[in-house]
Each structure stands twice: as C-alpha cells, then as structure tokens.
Amino acid sequence: MTPFELVEPGSLREAAALLDTGEPSVRPMAGGTALMLMMKMGVLRPTRLVSLRAVERRCFEIAEGPEGLYVGAMTSLSALGRSPLVAREAPVITGALRTLSNVRVRNVATLGGHLAHADPHMDLPPVLIALGARVTIADAKGGRTIPVEDLYAATCRRRCARAS
After folding, report:
1. Percent of the chain at pLDDT exceeding 70
2. pLDDT (tens digit, 9 = 90+) per residue, 50-99?
3. Which residues have C-beta within 8 Å of that of residue 54, sequence separation ≥ 6?
C-alpha cells in the first residue's frame, strides 16, 4: 500500500474543507471496508484519508425526523439492521440487511460509505430509491438534499454511454 496522511476532523464543516481540495487522491473514510480493499488491490492510492469517525453525533443517529426516518451517514449497517425504529418504519431495509455481506463487515460498514461506494450489486441503494429516500450531501458551503437516485444518475449515464 502507498503511504498516505490520515486526518480526523471534529466536524462536518472541517471534514468538507479538508476534502474540498480539488485533488482526486484525497478521500473520505467512513467504515473503510471497501476503501481498504481497493487500496490493498492498488485500485485506489489516496494521498490523504479524511476519517469521519469524530464528526457530529447526529451523523451516527437513527431518529424520527419531521420528514420521516432520519439515518446518519455514519450509522453502521448493523445498527441500521437492529434498529426497532427502522424495523417499524421501513421493514424492507431490515430484511435487505440480513442478506447483505457478513456480520463483521456490517459491524464496520456505514450507510454513507455503502452509498458512496456505488457498487451496482449492493442491495440498499435500490431499496432506498424505491422508498423515496433522500440524502443530504455536506460540503464546505453547507450542503444540499437530493433523492438517492441522483447520487447514481451521472454514473449510470457514463456506463450506458460506454456500453453503446
């Protein structure tokens, strides 16, 4: 593995500023499950990893919000699957998580990392799209909220263009 710098900001705003360099070799790290595999295989060679483990507590929460169920991006897939609130409000998520990967990976992998990895074989993105889920994307200026499917629209357009 190539050497890299590891930084651990204490807030989302600080993390966004560290990531907003325009340098593609600077990457965020949530649980790190897919990221570490890509680094070990030499597919990804970051110069800096921005750990999100110390960001605001709300990023780790599952709660009822004014617009429905709120799940923070740093919530582990295990916590998501065990949540009585998720089981009550969106039981299809609980069911999908039972078949997703193995327990050790689910204990470390986060919802945000799962969505960011954008593997077309992952179970949760289509489930979340079908449920009409929205994500809030944080950046140095604050952020914006978009439907989950918009995370993948550009990727899908590129893949379809290459296949034609």
Report:
1. 91
2. 999 999 999 999 999 888 999 999 999 999 999 999 999 999 999 999 88
3. 8, 9, 10
Which domains does the chain show, CATH number per domain?
Answer: 5-51 (3.30.43.10)
Q: Are strands 48-51 and 134-139 parallel, antiparallel or unpaired?
A: unpaired
In this model, does residue 139 exceed pLDDT 90?
Answer: no
For every residue of the chain, DSSP letters joined together read ----EEE--SSHHHHHHHHTTS-TTEEEESS-HHHHHHHHTTS---SEEEE-TTS-GGGG-EEEETTEEEE-TT-BHHHHHH-HHHHHH-HHHHHHHHTSS-HHHHHH-BHHHHHHH--TT-SHHHHHHHTT-EEEEEETTEEEEEEHHHHHHHHHHHHHHHH-
Query: Residue 131 and residue 93: Cα distance in Å, rounded?
Result: 10
